[in-house]
Write a structure and sequence with these properties.
Number of helices: 8
Largest sheet: 5 strands, mixed
Structural class: alpha/beta
Strand content: 5-15%
Strand order of the largest sheet: 2-1-3-5-4
Distance between the termini: 72 Å
């Protein structure tokens, strides 16, 4: 424990104590620099602790193992670093169940969705998406802002979507509690159905045409 009381460790402790004075709601990211200094102080503390009592071989083995432990997650999440979650919290495919919005879906999945539609071009691909990427306004996507439409029931939402695939972003489906009435009707409809496919950040549903 004494090895943690370096100059960086003291700075980290001071920053941590200051956070109790912070009154933030969506600004929690503003104190994330604390995490950087916490990692640095932990690393320097570890080096100080083992350097005094461990042999060179044991130290080299430990540090090689730690470097490998950092490289494996970085390699396995590539190229979806924005959606990284460690395996204990669900990994990159299930992490949205625990934390969403900017931590999972910034709309970076449009290229993957475009690639999916290239092999499923038998129906139009409607896109319900929380973002302003210019690619969302171009083919093959048909941007469909269901939350801004006059839809009064899940059945009306279904009639609107007949004859198309619908890609719904994870943030739209799982991360927005402040819904308009139409938004809630649409989410209720999608959650009552199983998606036919998914990319990392989009769930894809199929709506057959009317008889």
């Amino acid at each position: 424990p004494r090895s943690l009381f370096s100059s960086v460790g003291v700075l980290t402790l001071m920053m941590f104590l200051f956070t109790f004075n912070c009154r933030v709601q969506i600004g929690i990211r503003l104190i994330l620099p604390l995490v950087v200094f916490l990692l640095i102080s932990a690393a320097t503390g570890l080096v100080g602790a083992v350097s005094a009592s461990w042999s060179n071989r044991r130290r080299e083995t430990l540090f090689a193992g730690l470097i490998l432990a950092c490289l494996i997650p970085a390699a396995t999440v590539w190229p979806h670093g924005l959606a990284y979650f460690n395996q204990l919290s669900g990994g990159r495919t299930e992490g949205y169940r625990n934390l969403n919005d900017s931590n999972f879906d910034w709309g970076q999945g449009l290229p993957d969705l475009n690639e999916w539609h290239a092999s499923h071009a038998d129906k139009p691909l409607r896109l319900w998406y929380y973002g302003m990427d210019p690619a969302a306004f171009r083919e093959p996507f048909v941007l469909t802002r269901l939350h801004q439409m006059d839809l009064n029931s899940p059945e009306e939402v279904e009639r609107e979507l007949r004859g198309s695939y619908v890609a719904v972003s994870a943030t739209i489906l799982h991360g927005c509690p402040d819904m308009t009435p139409a938004w809630k009707h649409a989410v209720d409809l999608f959650k009552s159905r199983a998606p036919v496919s998914r990319t990392l950040t989009f769930f894809i549903y199929e709506f057959p045409p009317a008889d």
